[in-house]
Design brief:
The protein is mainly α and 282 residues long. The chain is built from 10 helices and no strands. The protein has one domain. Helices cover 77% and strands 0% of the residues.
Length: 282
C-alpha cells in the first residue's frame, strides 16, 4: 500500500508534465500561424475609404443641382429682403411719422405733401396720395387711402409669392433629377448588369441627392412664405392705423377745392358746351 501511493503520485506528475509539453507545443505551432495572419492582412490591399465633400455631393446630384442652387440663392435673397420690407418701422419710419404729425398740427399741408414726396416709404406714399385728394372731400381721401394701401400690400405680396413658387418648383426639379437618375441606373443595368456596381451606385446617388436637395430647399421656402405673409398682414394693419390717425379730424370744409399736391388735372368742360356756359363756369 505504501509503495503504490508513491508510484501513483509519480504517474500523475509524469502525466501533468506530458500535458504541459503538449500545450507548449501547440502554442509554438499556433503562434506563428496567428502571427502570419496580421502580416497577410497587412499585405493585402485595404479597401479605399471615400470621403464625401460638398462639391462631390454636388457633382453626384447631376445637372439638376444647378437650378436647385439658383433657387436656394433666390430663397436667401428674398427672405432677407422681405424681412426688411415687412417690418412696421420700415413701412412707417417713426421719424417720418413724427414729422408729418407736426406738419399736420401746424396746418402746413403743402409742406406735409412736399415732405412725403421727398421721403420714400409706404407711409409717405400713402400720405402723399391722400393729401392730393383733400380738396375733394373725406370720401375721396378714404378711397385714395384704401387704394394706395392695397397697392402697397399687393406689391409686397407679389414678392412673397415667389417663395411659394420656389417651394413648389424645387421638389419638381429634384423629381426630374430622380427620373433621369433612374433612367441612367436602368440603362447601366441593361448594358453591364450588376458586374459594375460603381456605375450603378453613381446613378442611384444622383437619384437620392437630387430629391433630397429639392426637399431641402422647398421646406424652408414654404415656412418663410407663411411667416412673412403673416408678418406683412400685421405690418399693414399697423400702417393703416397710423395713416388713419393722421387724417382723423381733417378740416375738409376749409380745404374744399384746395389743390395741395402737384398732380396735373386733365379734365375740363366738354368742348361742345357753348362759350357762355364755359364763361359762367369759369
Amino acid at each position: 500500500m505504501h509503495l503504490s501511493q508513491p508510484a501513483s503520485l509519480t504517474q500523475t506528475i509524469v502525466r501533468a508534465a506530458a500535458c504541459a509539453m503538449m500545450l507548449a507545443g501547440n502554442l509554438i505551432i499556433v503562434a506563428p500561424i496567428h502571427g502570419q495572419e496580421p502580416a497577410a492582412a497587412a499585405g493585402a490591399e485595404a479597401p479605399k475609404v471615400v470621403e464625401h465633400t460638398i462639391m462631390s455631393r454636388f457633382h453626384e446630384g447631376g445637372w439638376v443641382m444647378y437650378p436647385i442652387t439658383a433657387c436656394s440663392i433666390a430663397l436667401v435673397w428674398l427672405t432677407v429682403d422681405l424681412w426688411m420690407r415687412t417690418g412696421l418701422k420700415k413701412m412707417a419710419p417713426p421719424a417720418q411719422v413724427a414729422q408729418l404729425q407736426d406738419l399736420f398740427r401746424s396746418g402746413d399741408y403743402v409742406g406735409a405733401y412736399q415732405f412725403a414726396k421727398n421721403n420714400n416709404s409706404p407711409f409717405s406714399d400713402v400720405s402723399r396720395v391722400a393729401l392730393s385728394f383733400v380738396g375733394d372731400g373725406e370720401e375721396a381721401v378714404d378711397n385714395a387711402l384704401f387704394t394706395e394701401l392695397n397697392k402697397v400690400n399687393s406689391t409686397i405680396t407679389t414678392r412673397i409669392n415667389y417663395l411659394s413658387v420656389i417651394g413648389v418648383c424645387t421638389p419638381m426639379i429634384g423629381l426630374t433629377g430622380t427620373v433621369t437618375g433612374m433612367m441612367s441606373a436602368f440603362a447601366t443595368l441593361g448594358t453591364s448588369g450588376v458586374g459594375d456596381p460603381s456605375k450603378l451606385s453613381g446613378a442611384i446617388g444622383e437619384v437620392l441627392i437630387a430629391t433630397a436637395s429639392g426637399l431641402f430647399i422647398a421646406v424652408p421656402a414654404f415656412m418663410f412664405f407663411y411667416f412673412l405673409r403673416n408678418r406683412l398682414q400685421s405690418a399693414m394693419t399697423g400702417l393703416q392705423d397710423v395713416v388713419s390717425a393722421l387724417f382723423r379730424k381733417m378740416p375738409y370744409s376749409h380745404l374744399k377745392d384746395a389743390h395741395v399736391g402737384e398732380e396735373e388735372f386733365y379734365a375740363a368742360i366738354p368742348n361742345w358746351v357753348g362759350g357762355e356756359a364755359v364763361a359762367a363756369a369759369a
